[in-house]
Design a protein that fits this description.
The protein contains three helices and five strands. The chain is an alpha+beta fold.
């Protein structure tokens, strides 16, 4: 059974991963392999389809395989020219504000806002819905990641 605490721990792991990828990039360390591991460990691409609709994707808003997810996080892929590398933008903190977490057997659904911050800048608010599922080994994996900027009139 998945618990709300499992989801919160997983979100913290995701947030730390985004920051670590950017830190590795900025310090000249291997951020590409780190990002591949991040995707492999946190998303279910290796065992099933993942529905990924990231925040800063307009031309190709849906990323249904690992290569397109990697491009979103670190850019530098000629097939996805709009990708500048979301994880490389210099985030110094990421925090989740869950509006609700719903547990349905081996699936957890979390919805709310997450906030991205760079040093000396205001937080950037993004709305999200994530769906987590336990794989055959009992590890949580993301099977749906949908995020976008809040609606503005």
């Amino acid at each position: 059974m998945i618990s709300k605490e499992n989801v919160i721990e997983y979100q913290e792991k995701w947030a730390k991963g985004i920051i670590e990828i950017g830190n590795n990039f900025n310090s000249g360390k291997d951020y590409i392999e780190l990002t591949k591991r991040f995707i492999s460990e946190l998303y279910a691409y290796q065992t099933e389809g993942v529905l990924f609709n990231p925040t800063l994707a307009y031309d190709t808003p849906f990323r249904l395989d690992e290569i397109s997810a990697l491009s979103y996080f670190i850019g530098n892929n000629s097939d996805f020219k709009e990708d500048k590398g979301f994880a490389l933008l210099g985030w110094t903190s990421v925090r989740f504000e869950n509006i609700g977490i719903k547990i349905e057997g081996e699936i957890a659904i979390a919805m709310g806002n997450y906030f991205f911050k760079k040093t000396d800048e205001d937080e950037v608010k993004v709305e999200y819905t994530f769906v987590y599922k336990k794989d055959d080994s009992g590890k949580l994996c993301i099977i749906l990641h949908d995020s976008h900027f809040p609606y503005k009139k």
